[in-house]
Amino acid sequence: MAFKVLLHHYGRFTSPPGRKFVDGIVATVDPVELSNFSSNQMKAILTKCLGYDENSATFLYIKKSNRSLDSGLVLLDDAIQDIDSIVSYTQTYQKLLHVYVSRVELSPLVVADQLEDGGMFAPSTNGKLELVVAVVMTCTPNSLGDMTVTLKDPTGIMAGTIHYKVFKKEDGYANSTKVGSVLILRNVSVFTPKPSKHYLNITVKNIVKVFDNDNDTISRGRLGPF
Fold this sequence. Notes:
Layout: E1 2-9, E2 12-13, E3 21-22, E4 25-33, H1 39-49, E5 59-63, E6 73-75, H2 76-80, H3 83-92, E7 96-102, H4 108-113, E8 128-141, E9 147-153, E10 156-162, H5 173-176, E11 182-194, E12 197-202, E13 207-212, E14 217-220
Parallel strand pairs: 1-7, 10-12
Antiparallel strand pairs: 1-4, 2-3, 5-6, 5-7, 8-9, 8-11, 9-10, 11-12, 11-13, 13-14
GO molecular function, one term: RNA-directed DNA polymerase activity
Protein name: Reverse transcriptase domain-containing protein
Keywords: Nucleotidyltransferase, RNA-directed DNA polymerase, Transferase
């Protein structure tokens, strides 16, 4: 089976909702044989034909059929594991596949927030995000002593709750966790009350570092240097 690839490159993704790929160029690769289709093939085209540095970071995504860029992006490496999905995508668009090249990996924070169907956007098989780096956009203490937060990275927003024991530590979390602070978190559990809603459950053991830009201070967690 052969199909055509529209390779969207030299651009960037805007933040959702209403995500777009802007300032880019579209290269047509035709034909592409399904049996040869791979990330390495696309990266070879980028370096040999389109002037990309082979040592630069590039992340390849395909867009699922009948989905927007908010909820339809899948890592190419993941999609290729399911050949039937590639066939389905190309048949929907008359043997045409959209592949997007990003210099920055879409954060798992955003991927989890856009999960709609329990498919390839699931954060992981154990319901955890390996790494989150995000800015605190809002933070509000609740009656239990926990803090409800809204976190944002360059590509999206997600809600979460920080456990009250985090603020009892002597690492300065109570003073440094505020609007504008940057959190580096590891192995964070994702609570999913329904398929389209996801929240981070942040505990002491998830904290790697907290950067407080106002006071130019860093609070370090138990996981050590990052």
